[in-house]
Amino acid sequence: MSSEIIAFVTELKDLSLDIKRRAGELSKLRKRKDEIEKKICEFLVQQDQPGVKYRDVAVILEKNKYKRLPKKKAQKEEDAVNVLKHYGVGNAEKILAEVIETMKGEEVPKNSIRLKNVTHTGNIR
Prior knowledge:
Radius of gyration: 26 Å
Low-confidence stretches: none
Helix content: 55-70%
Largest sheet: 2 strands, antiparallel
Number of domains: 2
Strand order of the largest sheet: 1-2
Number of strands: 2
Order of helices and strands: HEEHH
Distance between the termini: 11 Å
Oligomer: single chain
């Protein structure tokens, strides 16, 4: 094998491990951020204050904001079929499947790389 390929493989392995590590860190950071935002919101509601200012940061409580809870894929499809049936569309399941397939992009062939740890030494052929 050429030394260039060996360097690429080594770098690819290192990058994959780094991405995995950072994804775990980001997950923990997002969870902690949500906890802190919840505590600040609770404090502002208890104190009946619209917000607080600390040094160069103003934290403002935005009341009456709505967030839509996510639906599972099966629930989305069931609801869409019900809407189609409500408006008199026959064979709603087939039409929905066709609409969903139409919304997807075109499939194009793509080569990909998979890293696999091997226990023995030697070239992989």
